[in-house]
Amino acid sequence: MKLNKGFLVHHNGEESLVVSTGAAAFSGMIRTNRTAARIIGCLEEGADREQIIHRLAQQYDAPTEQIAGDVDRVLDQLRQIGAIDD
Question: Considering the entire predicted model, what is its pTM?
Answer without folding.
Answer: 0.88
